[in-house]
């Protein structure tokens, strides 16, 4: 008996398993199956594509380069992919776009107004984020009521 391979998930099945299950499609994803003896067409390779390397420096800093470097204590290779070379200005915008599609959608993306986080108010003494707003009753200078408020930490009662 022969073997068949799924065109989508590349799972290999024995013919007897497929006959027992009475299936002509992949048991994993449901796609059509083809014989292992069929010649598989190789994808067309584009000669003008080069290898790009995506490196991590620390926890939050990344950079992209077309030159391979060994991992060291400062930088670590995260991802390798094929993309067009730099353009005439020396920019690698096409490589960045392919990196965003294949690996990390947020890589080298300019932050938009919707992705900016609201600032978190923290107590300067203990760093706690539980803060209450307390209205000022009166001003020492004028002796009258004011419309201003003070922030008070719930944890250490520090006013700031």
From TrEMBL:
* Record's protein name: Uncharacterized protein
This protein's superkingdom? Bacteria
Taxonomy of origin reads: Bacteria, Bacillati, Bacillota, Clostridia, Lachnospirales
């Amino acid at each position: 008996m022969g073997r068949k391979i799924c065109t989508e998930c590349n799972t290999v099945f024995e013919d007897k398993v497929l006959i027992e299950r009475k299936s002509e499609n992949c048991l994993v994803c449901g796609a059509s199956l083809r014989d292992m003896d069929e010649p598989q067409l190789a994808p067309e390779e584009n000669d003008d594509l080069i290898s790009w390397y995506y490196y991590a420096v620390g926890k939050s800093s990344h950079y992209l380069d077309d030159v391979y470097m060994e991992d060291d204590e400062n930088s670590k290779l995260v991802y390798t992919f094929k993309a067009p070379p730099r353009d005439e200005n020396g920019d690698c915008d096409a490589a960045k776009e392919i990196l965003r599609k294949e690996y990390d959608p947020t890589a080298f993306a300019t932050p938009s107004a919707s992705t900016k986080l609201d600032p978190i108010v923290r107590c300067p003494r203990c760093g706690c984020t539980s803060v209450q707003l307390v209205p000022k009753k009166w001003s020492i200078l004028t002796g009258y009521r004011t419309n201003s408020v003070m922030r008070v930490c719930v944890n250490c009662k520090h006013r700031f």
